[in-house]
Write a structure and sequence with these properties.
Blueprint lengths: L1 E7 L6 E8 L6 E11 L1 H8 L8 E2 L4 E8 L11 E4 L9 H4 L9 H6 L10 E3 L2 E3 L11 E5 L3 E3 L6 H22 L7 E4 L3 H13 L4 E5 L2 H9 L4 E4 L4 H12 L3 E6 L4 H9 L1 E9 L15 H5 L2 E4 L7 H13 L9 E6 L3 H10 L4 E5 L3
Parallel strand pairs: 11-12, 11-14, 12-13, 14-15, 15-16, 17-18
Antiparallel strand pairs: 1-2, 1-4, 2-7, 3-5, 3-9, 3-18, 5-6, 6-10, 7-8
Helix pairs in contact: 4-5, 4-10, 7-8
């Protein structure tokens, strides 16, 4: 079938909407007619080379839509189901999956690097030449073929824009608080970086009863926004990790139990660590450049039992956690719809990245059936 898709021809290039061929789903694969896709900073990492990506590629990894066809052996979903897409399918049989760490699946991660699906091959092509997938999904398109385990059924009354964000930003932030950190009522929490992921983490901390919840950002307007999401205080980046950490410690009454870092910048990671009190943990969500190095004061790790926790995809299990998150959205405890500040058609995807990088947008969503 023919699909419209935004193609990145090479690292550093522009996204161009063009017509591609999409092959039907194979065994354990699903064809999804996409309705919405979020525009995420991780997609920009592919554009600027922060994350090496095989090109030409169709980017996008925050998607939701309706199942249009299924391949042989598919049992999790059926035609007509509404689904949110997960970029972290798992094989269920590798060592990490058997340890109940599906987000670290040792089969999925190497396959993702090939630009294909789980078997390493692509379903996208142009004039007979391969076009590669991004994070198994490639949601900057009318439709996509994805692994069955990337499809999580959702209620039909959930807005596709919200469901798409649950596929990445929301789960990354919420899961970091609930799953990686295990924040409890009364814990002191700082959120460093108040974009879509950071605000998702902030909402999760507020929902669980953390107090205080301190927002940290380099932009005053983002701190104002964070307060509307429930932040009890705001700290403006003070020019260095040390000065910012001191401001967080002052605002929290001596340091936080968990500092959730959502920028991927080493200086912000350092500030997260330095802002914690005894037995506190820096929870690192943001993806740094491959050559980035983090230097920490070693003595305070054993002496104060300070910790550093890595968090990929919020340590979440999509088939379990998407439903929990969306139920809390429906109950009014996680106002996820407030994350969506802009709706654009696919043809304006480049403007979506401009809005994201300028800080004007909270989250841009592409309306793919417009």
């Amino acid at each position: 079938m023919k699909v419209r898709a935004a193609v990145l021809e090479h690292t550093g290039g522009l996204l161009e909407v063009q017509e591609l061929d999409l092959a039907p789903p194979g065994p354990a694969e699903v064809l999804v007619r996409l309705a919405a896709s979020g525009v995420c900073h991780s997609d920009f990492n592919a554009i600027d080379g922060t994350a090496e990506t095989r090109c030409p590629a169709v980017l996008g990894h925050e998607g939701a839509g309706v199942v249009e066809a299924i391949g042989p052996g598919v049992t999790r979903v059926g035609v007509g189901d509404h689904v949110a897409l997960s970029w972290a399918p798992s094989c269920g049989s590798c060592g990490e999956c058997l340890r109940e760490l599906p987000q670290l699946c040792s089969a999925a991660w190497p396959a993702m690097g090939t630009g294909g699906l789980m078997d390493g091959t692509t379903r996208l092509s142009r004039s007979g030449d391969p076009v590669y997938h991004y994070s198994f999904l490639s949601t900057f398109a009318d439709a996509c073929v994805v692994p069955e385990k990337s499809c999580v059924p959702i209620p039909t009354d959930i807005p596709f824009a919200v469901a798409g964000l649950v596929g990445c930003a929301v789960t990354t932030g919420v899961g970091a608080v609930w799953r990686t950190a295990g924040v409890r009522p009364g814990d002191r929490v700082a959120i460093i970086g108040c974009g879509g992921v950071g605000l998702s983490a902030l909402m999760a901390a507020v929902a669980v009863g953390a107090e205080p919840v301190i927002a940290v950002d380099a932009t005053a307007t983002k701190l104002d926004t964070a307060r509307t999401f429930g932040a009890s205080d705001g700290v403006l980046w003070a020019g260095s990790a040390e000065a910012t950490a001191e401001a967080i410690r002052d605002a929290s009454g001596g340091g936080v139990d968990y500092a959730i870092e959502a920028t991927g910048r080493p200086e912000a990671m350092t500030a997260a660590f330095l802002s914690t009190r005894a037995r506190g943990a820096a929870v690192l969500i943001g993806i740094p450049r491959e050559d980035a190095v983090l230097t920490l004061p070693a003595l305070s790790i054993p002496r104060m039992e300070r910790r550093v926790l890595g968090s990929i995809y919020g340590s979440s299990r999509p088939e379990r956690d998407f439903g929990t998150t969306l139920a809390l959205y429906q109950a009014g405890r996680l106002p996820l719809d407030r994350l969506v500040s802009h709706h654009l058609p696919l043809e304006e995807v480049a403007r979506g990245f401009e809005l994201m990088r300028s800080g004007e947008a909270l989250r841009v969503v592409l309306d793919l059936n417009a």
